[in-house]
Design a protein that fits this description.
42% of the residues lie in helices and 15% in strands. α2 runs parallel beside α10, α6 packs parallel to α7 and α13 packs antiparallel against α14. It has 14 helices and 17 strands. The strands form five sheets. A seven-stranded mixed β-sheet has the order 2-10-9-8-5-3-4, with helices on both faces. The chain has a four-stranded antiparallel β-sheet with strand order 13-14-17-16, with helices on one face. Strands 1-15 form a two-stranded parallel ribbon. By secondary structure, it is an alpha/beta fold. The protein has two domains: 265 residues, Aspartate Aminotransferase, domain 2; 120 residues, Aspartate Aminotransferase, domain 1, CATH 3.90.1150.10. The radius of gyration is 22 Å and the shape is globular. β13 and β14 form a beta hairpin. The structure holds pyridoxal-5'-phosphate (PLP). The site of pyridoxal-5'-phosphate has 13 residues, from α3.
């Protein structure tokens, strides 16, 4: 292999995406992406698509926040935009209970560090103004924990992940919001895994001033299209006072291309950076799918199918430690304990894309993003049981499928 090798055309196989994300992109989204015409970022229909997406995004978030739009990129791009208002020396209390809130804490440390703190440890600075509260993997952040920490530290900013995908735990967003209000902190929330899966309206959480999500989990869009964000007027006012150190992810400047100028909706966006007509078409369709289905119905479907998966793996002797409805995080039965990584790798080698946890302890993560049908769940469970049997679990496949059939028939009969 040399520097000027031209490699064969890259072929990527279709896999069963049954991890924490990216989820199984909806066919309607893929069709919209490839069927969009060639058009530049200032073409009328592309700009109209952005304005329409902005309004649909407000409905999805359940908000009147004018500063609600998509940040080009992945979930962390939206999070970076949200964290951009955090300035060196700002006081922050941040909660972490898994991989992703852990990375968010790292971002906050970078933003809040003084130049000296940054130079002391450039890749992983520790800011004296940031207090990190670490909750053990597998546990949720509770309102009491947030209340106690905010009462003690009285920070300008508080941060928490709504659903921590690393450990599969739902954190107490009501308690977080109430504590922020009580102690005068501005709440920032990583809603990457919850938006489009849980039925909630952000305007019900007055203590939270910034929300950031992603395209490829509950929103069912392609990865690397648009990460939804929403900011309260209070957040924007604070940003106007302090400014921030970014052009591309500046929440006020980036909003201009989505037709949000001087805090008001205008008919047409103005240039901030180049947008892709393909990405806009895909994002627009993903939002239409969710709103047509309705968030309440979607949330119900997730709970229903997650229960089937969770009950099945429990019957196989696994211990479920998660409570998210799009993801099951589990420990293997005692006779297979310690072989989680081996199991996951064997599944992935066969195009069955489940995941390990990325921080310790090593657990298995099986997700159901956009796999909301009896057939899809049955395939996931069957393939998982086969993988366990390949490692010598000795499960009776007939029992597994009989129980699953009973669950689905019973539920359908009850409806
Ligand atoms: C997936 C995830 C992220 C990161 O999103 P990317 O699209 O990979 O950038 C951040 N936070 C949470 C809670 C996540 O689940």
């Amino acid at each position: 292999m040399s520097a000027n090798t031209i490699f064969p055309k890259l072929e990527i196989p279709d896999t069963l995406a049954a991890g924490p994300g990216p989820g199984n992109t909806d066919q309607r989204v893929l069709d919209s992406f490839i069927n969009a015409g060639m058009a530049d970022h200032m073409q009328g229909d592309v700009l109209r698509g952005m304005i329409e997406s902005k309004f649909m995004l407000r409905t999805l978030f359940g908000t009147q926040n004018t500063h609600t739009f998509g940040v080009g990129g992945s979930g962390f791009s939206g999070l970076d935009c949200m964290f951009s208002a955090v300035m060196p020396g700002d006081t922050v209390v941040a909660f972490t209970n898994g991989t992703f809130s852990g990375i968010d804490v790292m971002t906050l440390q970078m933003k809040a560090s003084t130049t000296t703190e940054l130079a002391t440890n450039a890749a992983s600075p520790k800011a004296a103004s940031v207090t990190v509260i670490t909750i053990p993997h597998g546990q949720s952040v509770t309102g009491e924990m947030v209340d106690a920490a905010l009462a003690e530290h009285k920070p300008k900013w508080a941060f928490m992940a709504h659903w921590e995908t690393g450990s599969g735990r739902i954190n107490d967003i009501r308690g977080f919001s109430d504590a922020c209000l009580e102690h005068g902190a501005m709440g920032l929330v990583d809603a990457v895994s919850s938006l489009g899966v849980a039925n909630f309206s952000i305007d019900d959480y007055a203590g939270v001033d910034g929300w950031a999500s992603c395209p490829q989990k509950g929103v069912l869009c392609l990865p690397m299209t648009y990460a939804p964000v929403s900011f309260s007027d209070r957040y924007i006012a604070s940003l106007k006072e302090t400014g921030c150190y970014t052009y591309v992810h500046h929440p006020i400047l980036e909003a201009r291309h989505w037709g949000i100028i001087d805090g008001k909706d205008v008919d047409k966006g103005t240039y901030h950076r180049t947008h892709s007509g393909y990405a806009i078409a895909a994002f627009h369709e993903a939002l239409r799918i969710t709103l047509q289905e309705g968030l309440a119905q979607r949330a119900k479907n997730y709970a229903f199918h997650e229960h089937a998966l969770s009950a099945a793996v429990t019957a196989m002797g696994c211990e479920v430690t998660s409570n998210m409805t799009s993801l099951v995080v589990l420990n293997l039965p005692a006779n297979l304990a310690g072989r989680e990584m081996e199991l996951v790798q064997a599944c992935r080698a066969k195009g069955f894309g489940i995941w390990p946890t990325l921080s310790s302890p090593v657990q298995v993560r099986i997700g159901i993003l956009n796999q909301l049908s009896r057939a899809a769940i049955t395939e996931i469970i069957t393939r998982y049981a086969e993988a366990m049997n390949d490692m010598g679990a000795g499960l009776d496949m007939a029992t597994v499928t009989t129980q699953l059939d009973a669950y689905y028939s019973q539920q359908i009969a009850a409806e």
